Amino acid sequence: MAIKRALAVLALASSLLVSPVLAEEQEKCGQASYYPSEYTCYDDKTLCPIQFSLPTKPCGGGCYSPEQYSCEDGTIKDLPEATSPFTLTFSGVRKTFRNLHVKACGRYLAVGANARECYSCAASGGTNCGSYQNSTVLLPGGQMASDVPGHQFWYVNPTDGILRYTEALASNATTWNATIPGKEFAGQNVKVYENGLFTWTREDATTHWWMACLVTLPGGTVGTGRSWRIYAPTYVNMERGDCEIGRIVAKAVDRKAGAYKYP
Ligand SMILES: *[C@@H]1O[C@H](CO)[C@@H](O)[C@H](O)[C@H]1NC(C)=O
Ligand SMILES: *[C@@H]1O[C@H](CO)[C@@H](O)[C@H](O)[C@H]1NC(C)=O
Ligand SMILES: *[C@@H]1O[C@H](CO)[C@@H](O)[C@H](O)[C@H]1NC(C)=O
C-alpha cells in the first residue's frame, strides 16, 4: 500500500503539491518558479523534472531520461541494450538513497552503508588473483563477471522477486553442469540499457524502478537490518511498507573490474 501511495505522489510531483525539502527556496526559470529539488532549468527557459533524484533533459520540446534515451537532432531515441559488463547504482528519492552502489554478498544484491561487497580468490591453476578489482560486476544476459568454474548467474527470484545471484561451484568441481539453484532464471525479464536503466518486465508491464527493502536480522528489531536488498516491484512486494523505491542504473566497466568469485 505504501509503495502505491508513494508512486501516486511521484506522479503528482510535477504540480507543486509536494515540496520534499522543508522551506526550500523557489528559483526562477524564465517566468516560471520552481523548486530545484524537483526540476532542472535549462537555458533559463525549459524546466525538466527530476525523477528519483535523476535529472531529465530537454529534447525537441519535451524532456527525456538520459538513462533510457538519447536525443539526436531533437528526436528522442532508445539507448541500445547493454553489451558491456556493468556495475549498478540505486537512486531513490531521499538523500540517503542517492547513487548507492549495488553490492554482491551471500547470494543477494544489496545497498546501504551496511551492505557488504564480498569476493574471494584462491590462487591455483594459474589464477592471478591480483588481476581482479573485486567490484560487483554483472554481464548482460545473466552472468556475474566472475571466473569460477561453472560461472555465477544473476536473476530475479520468481517466487519473491528478490534480485540474487547463484553460488559458485568449488574450483575442483567436476560436475559443471550441476543444477545450481537460480541458474535457470539467469537474466530473465530484465532489460539493461548501455550506461542506462536496469529494468524489469512484469507480466503486464515493464517497470523502470525497483525497491530496496530493509533486511532485519533474525530476532532483531526493525532498524537493526544490515542492508537493503533489491526487490522487483511484484504486486505482492508493492504491499510492503519498509522499502525505498528507486531506479537502478548500469555503468559500463571493464570485465576485470569484477572478482574471481562472489561468495
Ligand atoms: C581482489 O581480491 C583478491 C583476493 O582477495 C586479492 O588477491 C586482490 O589483490 C584483490 N584486488 C584488489 C585490486 O584489491
Ligand atoms: C574438492 O576440494 C574439497 C576441499 O579441498 C574436497 O573436500 C572435495 O572432496 C573436493 N571435490 C572433488 C570432486 O575433488
Ligand atoms: C554437460 O553439458 C553438455 C552440454 O549440454 C553435455 O554435452 C555434457 O555431456 C554434459 N556433461 C555432464 C558431465 O553432464
TrEMBL record:
Keywords: Signal. InterPro entries: Eng1_septum (IPR018909). The keyword Signal applies. Residues 28-75 form the Endo-1,3(4)-beta-glucanase 1 carbohydrate binding domain. One of its GO terms (molecular function) is carbohydrate binding. The keyword Aminoacyl-tRNA synthetase does not apply. It comes from the Eukaryota. Residues 1-23 form the signal peptide. This is Endo-1,3(4)-beta-glucanase 1 carbohydrate binding domain-containing protein. It comes from Cercophora samala. The lineage of its organism: Eukaryota, Fungi, Dikarya, Ascomycota, Pezizomycotina.
